[in-house]
Specification:
The chain is an alpha+beta fold. It is built from 7 helices and 43 strands.
Length: 619
């Protein structure tokens, strides 16, 4: 049976300045200079080194493996001075067998490189490419008879459920090294056995299957695979899975388990203030709690493979996920092999997650691509690869504004979405309606989504007359008010994803008075402040009872009369100042906005009241 020990403590880190310090994992050397602006964060090779005692194991019957869950961007691993593996790609898991190389005491060294090059993605994008070992490293002891560990970092098991009326057929395919008979047991969420069988590739039936039904009912089964030799279990692995069906109708949108299920949600970058990508499980939990609070039912996990723990969370809470590789902004002919290997890792490592419905091939790839023919050929190869490796899911990509609807790259994958900031980078919120209507008119059979849309919003910047480009919290809210109504007019879109759920670092930026940051998040970089726009979406999407007064941070005002805006999902909202009831509004069917008279501001008011607006979406 397996035993796993983490190697997270007592690492000697030799950084950009050549000095060696003691650090703990997870770690990045760009936690500060990758977030302070100037586009000058250090990119190069740094070294991590630690010592460990050989684990207790029987060399005749067991093996020892090292597992790395995230090293950005390239890793060269040395054990006792010997180069044992290299890995290109900073967001996926890789493993290496080390049994024959172990001494009583061992030195493990990892040379980590996030240098600029033309062969490993990402290289050009609007986010910081943090260098470091920012996810777990583990030492694993397994039987020599074990489920395969060295195939693109995968789990050695693939589970493919198919809905068949009230039942489900579940194909379980396993790969193993050494000898043994494979035994499969399927269990329900309570731990009861629902089906059993033997063999490396078998199909079992779950009668009266309980469906994984998104945020409404994210029901999970478990598959326990055992490798048995002469009646003894040599290896065992448990994998959760969900039974669901889905489809996309270009005229009706997304369907889950045969029913319309409009996808409305957010995109997520994983980094944190002062930490970069070196975050903890508790921080993943906090991110998911905020996403749940807002009422989202889908997440675009941009622009790379995220931590397995977060995909697990998405399974557990019912988020529908767009998963993608960091093939972004520029096609590099020398990077084609890396796009293939990163896609293989993404699919093999994440195939069993019911939350994932599509594989993202690229993002804004036409921004600075020169070799268009090679880029298109690579997209076709990636698209075909996805379908070959996983016939159960769809493919998609994200185009940007200057990639027009007739661009051939927009017609390779099964689905397409656009990153559009009409009303932010260019004037005219109404252009969003025109763009959607035009695309749908020209390509009525092509599913269209919005993969990014948003506006910068700073909680410390305010205006009573917000305008495009002012970075105020008020304009960000005004922008999103329009976009929600716009999407409500275009219910056929297959998915919409706000850019972004959280502010994130982009060291090349210098906007809004805080260099190195993208402030389009609905929540601040440190996760401490929910912006007004957060509550707008909560009013439209969430069933949790709440009321929110907007612009509460706008304390320095000069007007005699001011507007008070309220976001709520309640049918009745009353307005009070200094304990005195000033007005009450009752939501009327078919209306999402109610206006009342203005109130004059006085020095004694505990809050600033004025024209009351109740934003309401019946959900």
């Amino acid at each position: 049976m397996r035993s796993i020990a983490k190697l997270m403590q007592d690492w000697q880190f030799t950084g950009p300045d050549g000095k060696t310090t003691l650090v703990e994992l997870p770690h990045t050397w760009n936690a500060k200079d990758g977030q302070d602006g100037g586009n000058d964060y250090w990119r190069g090779t740094c070294t991590y080194s630690t010592t460990f005692a050989a684990p207790a194991f029987d060399a005749a019957s067991q093996e020892v493996w090292l597992q790395f869950e995230g090293v950005n961007s390239s890793a060269k691993v040395l054990l006792n001075g010997r180069n044992i593996c290299t890995h290109d790609g900073g967001y996926s898991t890789f493993r290496v067998h080390v049994s024959d190389l172990l001494a009583k005491d061992n030195q493990l060294t990892v040379e980590v490189d996030n240098s600029i090059n033309d062969r490993i993605y990402p290289q050009k994008a609007d986010f910081t490419f943090y260098g470091g070992i920012y996810r777990d490293i583990s030492l694993m002891v397994v039987s020599k008879n074990h489920f395969t560990l060295d195939y693109f970092g995968g789990p050695g098991i693939r589970i493919t459920p198919t809905v068949q009326g009230a039942d489900a057929s579940v194909q379980v395919t396993t790969w193993h090294d050494g000898e043994g008979e494979v035994s499969i047991e399927l269990l329900d969420a309570a731990g009861n056995t629902v089906a059993t069988g033997k063999g490396p590739d078998i199909t079992l039936t779950i009668f009266n299957a309980h469906l994984w039904n998104g945020v409404k009912d994210p029901y999970l089964y478990s598959c326990k695979a055992r490798l048995v030799v002469n009646g003894t279990v040599e290896d065992e692995t448990t994998t959760r899975f969900g039974v669901r069906s889905f489809k996309v109708d270009p005229k009706k949108g997304f369907f889950l388990n045969g029913k319309s299920y409009p996808l409305h949600g957010v995109s997520r970058h994983q980094d944190r203030k002062g930490l970069g990508n070196a975050i903890t499980r508790e921080m993943h939990d906090e991110d998911m709690a905020l996403i749940k609070e807002i009422g989202a039912n889908t997440i675009r996990l941009a622009h790379y493979q995220h931590d397995q723990y977060f995909y697990d969370l998405c399974d557990e809470v019912g988020m529908v996920v767009w998963a993608e590789i960091p093939y972004i902004s520029e096609h590099m002919p020398n990077g084609r092999e890396n796009t293939i290997s990163q896609m293989k890792e993404l699919i093999i490592q994440n195939y069993n997650h019911p939350c994932i419905v599509c594989w993202g091939v690229s993002n804004e790839i036409t921004i600075s691509t020169r070799d268009k023919a090679d880029m298109l050929d690579n997209h076709r190869e990636l698209n075909d690869l996805c379908h070959k490796m996983d016939s159960t899911r769809l493919t998609t990509l994200a185009c940007y504004a200057m990639c027009g609807p007739f661009n051939p790259v927009a017609h390779i994958t099964d689905l397409v979405s656009w990153n559009l900031y009409l009303g932010w980078y260019v004037p005219g919120l109404f252009l969003n309606d025109l763009w959607m209507d035009f695309f749908h008119l020209v390509y009525p059979g092509r599913p269209l989504g919005f993969s990014e849309y948003g506006a910068e919003g700073m909680p410390n910047l305010h205006s009573s007359k917000p305008r495009r480009g002012d970075h105020t919290e008020e304009y960000q809210a005004k922008y999103h008010e329009y976009m929600l109504r716009c999407f409500d007019r275009h219910k056929w879109m297959w998915a919409t994803h706000v850019w972004n759920m959280f502010d994130f670092a982009a060291d090349a930026r210098d906007q809004g008075g805080e260099p190195g940051m993208n402030h389009k998040g609905l929540v601040t970089f440190d996760r401490k402040t929910r912006k007004d726009s957060f509550y707008l979406y909560k009013a439209w999407w969430s069933d949790e009872n709440f009321v929110h007064i907007c612009s509460k941070r706008f304390t320095d005002r000069t007007e005699k009369e001011i507007e008070v805006k309220v976001y709520s999902n309640q049918n009745t909202v009353a307005l009070y100042a200094d304990g005195k009831k000033l007005a009450e509004q009752i939501w009327e069917e078919g209306s999402d906005e109610v206006l009342t008279r203005a109130f004059e501001k006085t020095d004694k008011d505990s809050l600033f009241w004025g024209e009351q607006t109740i934003e309401r979406k019946n959900v």
